[in-house]
Design brief:
The chain is mainly α. It has a single domain (13-178), classed as dinb family like domain (Four Helix Bundle (Hemerythrin (Met), subunit A), Up-down Bundle). 55% of the residues lie in helices and 3% in strands. The protein contains six helices and two strands, in the order ααααββαα. The chain has a two-stranded antiparallel ribbon with strand order 1-2. The radius of gyration is 17 Å and the shape is globular. It starts with 12 loop residues before the first helix and ends in a 6-residue tail after the last helix.
Length: 184
Amino acid sequence: MVTHVPAEAPGDERGALLAFVEAQRGAIRRSVLGLTEEQAASRPVASELSLSGLLKHVAETELSWLRMAQQRPNERERSAEHRADGFRLTEGETIPRVLEFWAKVAAETESFIRNDVDSMNDTFPLPPAPWFPENERCSMRWLLVHLVEETARHAGHADLLREALDGRKALDLVIEEAGYPGRS
């Protein structure tokens, strides 16, 4: 579950798409609310996914797409042999550090879209990869819709993992985060 994104705010296409991306980010951030590092790293279902691993994955994935759009190298790109590390916290990584990293990526994404992109129709090339069509270009609009899609997919995973872990549902976490008295 995500919180409501008002229809009128923030008033333009960029703002609306950025608001939907942020709503999905919030769902994943809330999924680790009140958990220990060990709880967030656990895998309570028959899957390799953990809440802390999802948190790290979506933060690094957003950075990857941002760097593609900026046509800059990704300083956190992983080699094939370390790709699995993108789904789990490694030595020295903690939930607060991943959240801090993601906040910086989110702020950079917002600044880039608001200040550096002339038109949502501007495009960037996708890198050569078996999963991308050859010579494909994507618009900035497509980028933001894809970030909503990618983050929402993992927010759903996070909802399931959190509920399997301790029975807490997404709405419970929204209420807790908002600090509604007498509700949790």
